[in-house]
Design a protein that fits this description.
Length: 114
């Protein structure tokens, strides 16, 4: 059974940085895509960044130049380095992995104070 576990969320002041980590476990050797989504209160879940098996990267316009997605050292891990954080980045951040179907983590809360 596939499990995704996020870590690294917390409270940070505007302009600060956080790094999120997602570790996937289970019987899948390599996911097609690993992504980060976020959902702010009262808003729909949105894609933040994605990384394909072939190292293609996509960012939401709102985070370009501030966030960086990358692979972790362990297999099936993905990181999200978030710099120059803004209050509007406050959300629950979810790790997502795709291999024939979507897999989701439980989320980690990021709060950016002004």
């Amino acid at each position: 059974q596939v499990q995704l576990v996020e870590s690294g969320g917390g409270l940070v002041q505007a302009g600060g940085s956080l790094r999120l980590s997602c570790a996937a476990s289970g019987p899948i050797f390599s996911f097609n895509v690993m992504s980060w989504y976020r959902q702010a209160p009262g808003k729909q879940r949105e894609l933040v960044a994605s990384l394909t098996r072939d190292d293609l990267i996509n960012y939401a316009d709102s985070v370009k130049g501030r966030f960086t997605i990358s692979r972790g050292n362990a297999k099936n891990t993905v990181l999200l380095q978030m710099d120059s954080l803004k209050p509007e980045d406050t959300a629950v951040y979810y790790c997502n992995a795709y291999y024939g179907t979507q897999y989701w983590g439980k989320g980690t809360l990021v709060t950016v104070s002004s």
